[in-house]
Amino acid sequence: MVCALGAAVCFGTASVLQAVAARAAEPGTGSGVDPALFLRAVRQWRYLAGLGLDAVGFVLQIIALRHVPIYAVGAALAASLAVTAVVAARLLRVRLSRTEWGAVAVVCAGLLMLGLASGEEGSGTGPPGLAYGLLAVTGLVLLVGAVAGRLPDRTRALVLGLAAGTGFGVVEVAVRLIDGFSWQELANPALYALLVGGGAAFLLLTSALQRGSVTAATAGLVLGETIGPALVGVVWLGDRTREGLAWLAVLGFAVSVAGALALGRFGEPEPEPAPTGP
Questions:
Q1: How far apart are CA 170 and CA 135, in angstroms?
Q2: Nearest to 118 by CA among 55, 38, 64
Q3: DSSP collapsed to 3 states, the chain
Q4: Lowest-pLDDT range, 23-32, 61-70, 166-175, 219-228?
Q5: Any idea what the Cα angle at residue 57 is, between residues 108 and 23, rounded to 5°?
Q6: Alpha-carbon distance 209 to 238, whole Å?
Q7: What is the pLDDT confidence band of residue 133, given thresholds at 50, 70 and 90?
Q8: 165-185 residue pLDDT tens
Q9: Separation CA 131–CA 237 (nearest Å)
Q10: Which parts of the chain span the membrane according to its record (predicted)?
Q11: Is the pLDDT of residue 121 over 90?
């Protein structure tokens, strides 16, 4: 859980840095799947710093996924939205309302409950077609990204964030289906689902952060990377809770995700008023 929370800090901070860089880049085609926008944004040091934090967060996420259930990791990653809101208040010169600070507290409370209730990760590998299903989901993610570019900015950011989160959710499940690093794994479709899903998620998230609300985009991201993978982990991969604490895990998961979405509901916090005086 410590690694999962560390990943949330990395991802949440990276989102704001990447948003600053993406907004400074020249506008692209408007499509959510725009590699040229990514190439323009990656020339800026803030975006590179964000990618560095993403890399550290990804390593921490893999460690967490190897030791605790997917639902626990997913809920911990929901805290990245709280981190995004706090860092945005600094770097983007925006102000968090009392309601938004309350949502941050709700996320933390949900994570505490989930941490107390989570058990060992499951040892299941799921049905034979699960890895191919992940590949199909990555194709759907790319399709949604291409269509979402035509939506209004606020809706666009939320939908692209949701699609990006789904791509990262594919990565979470794929990690559990890959048995170490060996030449045999080159024949495992889960490996390619991980690569394509992660790549698609980065493209869509960059587009989502360029226009619209950073918190709305991150809210979609949180929703996409938590609910689906959590269900897969419980239904097919054997993830369980501590004896008698299933109710606390369900409550903690629901509370943390609800708090994260509440932050996204209010969109971008209002800018701080300009200082007045002589």
A1: 8
A2: 64
A3: CHHHHHHHHHHHHHHHHHHHHHHHCCCCCCCCCCHHHHHHHCCCHHHHHHHHHHHHHHHHHHHHHCCCCHHHHHHHHHHHHHHHHHHHHHHCCECCCHHHHHHHHHHHHHHHHHHHHECCCCCCCCCCCHHHHHHHHHHHHHHHHHHHCCCCHHHHHHHHHHHHHHHHHHHHHHHHHCCCCCHHHHHCHHHHHHHHHHHHHHHHHHHHHHCCCHHHHHHHHHHHHHHHHHHHHHHCCCCCECCCCHHHHHHHHHHHHHHHHHHHHCCCCCECCCCCCC
A4: 23-32
A5: 90
A6: 35
A7: very high
A8: 899 999 989 988 887 767 777
A9: 12
A10: 68-89, 101-118, 130-151, 158-178, 190-209, 244-263
A11: no
Tokens standing for 84? 């995004």
Residue corresponding to tokens 């997913």: 74
d(CA 110, CA 83): 15
Residue at 218: amino acid letter: T
CB 76 within 8 A of CB 229: no
The one-letter amino acid code at 228 reads: G
Residue type, 117: A
pTM for the complete prediction? 0.78
Q: What is the mean pLDDT of residues 197-213?
A: 85
Count of all residues that appear for the chain in the document: 278
Q: What is the mean pLDDT of residues 210-227?
A: 78
Confidence band of 28 (pLDDT split at 50, 70, 90): low
